[in-house]
Amino acid sequence: MASSLVLEDFLFPGEIVIFQSGRVKTLNDRFDFYVTDQRILLYRRRGVVFKKDRVVAERIENIQTLHYDEKGIAKKKGVLHIETISKKMEPLEGTVSDIKAIWQELQKHIKKEG
Questions:
Q1: In angstroms, rounded to a whole number, what is the distance separating the alpha carbons of residues 24 and 39?
Q2: Rounded Cα–Cα distance for residues 27 and 44 (Å)
Q3: Which residue range is the domain that position 52 belongs to?
Q4: CA distance 70 to 78
Q5: How far is residue 24's CA from residue 55's CA, in Å, rounded to a whole number?
Q6: Which of 7, 23, 34, 108 has the fewest CB atoms within 10 Å, measured from its CB?
Q7: Is the CB of residue 74 less than 8 Å from the CB of residue 3?
Q8: Quick check: is 55 in a domain?
Q9: Which residues of the chain have pLDDT under 70?
Q10: How many domains does the chain contain in total?
Q11: pLDDT more than 70, % of the chain
Q12: Are 24 and 35 contacting, i.e. CB atoms less than 8 angstroms apart?
């Protein structure tokens, strides 16, 4: 997995990747999705000669709500809406199994208010 070596450039010292999903689509692009012990990371690298990285990160502690949905009839797609303290992120789309796995993983980490 070559991309994980490059991903390490974007991790904080001591930050550990605890979950990785298949590709998700958001922000008109396709990303690899990771959950670390501190953040969610969306990462993609483009280019053969001139490499260009794109990273979106959000602290797990800032996530307030998760909303999972499915779209489509013949070819279903999973859709995950993530809302943080400061904003609504663009929805994540992907296969039902990938998006459901992300939703289940994030459920373990978000703070339960009560």
A1: 16
A2: 12
A3: 2-109
A4: 5
A5: 13
A6: 108
A7: no
A8: yes
A9: 1-5, 111-114
A10: 1
A11: 92
A12: no
